[in-house]
Amino acid sequence: MTMSFEMATLLPAAPERVYNAWLSADEHSAFTGSPATVDPTVGGAFTAWDGYISGTTLEMTPTSRLVQAWRSTDFPASAPDSRLEIRFEAAPEGTRLTLIHSGFPEGSDDEYRQGWIDFYFAPMAEYFTADE
């Protein structure tokens, strides 16, 4: 059985700014504080956290939505990639980033949910606040 969850955060930057930063190797590295690579095209590969995370971009709706095949080095070798959908919506505060993560190995939902908070949402809030 695979697991899934949905979570969201508010970021003090426009959706276009957050979307473009997600797809920039330099900015992705800067807001996470760890090396990332990004080919910002459909079918393009990406890595984050110095290779701990890897995958490919499956769908792109410029400035509003990304769908990626996503896996971490914790996945069993036989496990398929999980699915990550990221939505970037305008909000009075800037951007409501909604993340829907599904299809990861059973029993790792709490770990990944907390990982998104600690290693993405919190540092992104700080990064985009510094932009103001």
Q: Could you characterize what this model shows?
A:
The chain is of the alpha+beta class and 132 residues long. It has a domain of 91 residues: 2-Layer Sandwich (Alpha-D-Glucose-1,6-Bisphosphate, Chain A, domain 4), CATH 3.30.530. The chain has three helices and seven strands, in the order βααββββββα. It has a seven-stranded antiparallel sheet with strand order 1-7-6-5-4-3-2. The longest helix has 23 residues. The chain is globular and about 45 Å long. The termini are far apart. The mean pLDDT is 95.
Enumerate the strands of the largest sheet in spatial order, edge to edge or round the barrel.
1-7-6-5-4-3-2
Number of helical elements: 3
CATH architecture of the domain at 2-20 and 60-131: 2-Layer Sandwich
CATH topology of the domain at 2-20 and 60-131: Alpha-D-Glucose-1,6-Bisphosphate, Chain A, domain 4
Give the N-to-C terminal Cα separation.
43 Å
Q: Which secondary-structure class do the elements indicate?
A: alpha+beta
Helix percentage: 25-40%
Q: Identify the quaternary structure here.
A: single chain
The CATH first-level class of the domain at 2-20 and 60-131 comes to: Alpha Beta
Provide the low-confidence segments as ranges. none
Largest sheet: 7 strands, antiparallel
> Radius of gyration from the CA trace?
14 Å
Question: In percent, how much strand structure appears in the residues?
Answer: 35-45%
Helix/strand order, N-terminal first? EHHEEEEEEH
CATH superfamily of the domain at 2-20 and 60-131: START domain
The count of DSSP E runs of length 2 or more, i.e. the number of strands, is 7
User: What's the pLDDT, averaged over the residues?
Assistant: 95
Inertia-based shape: globular
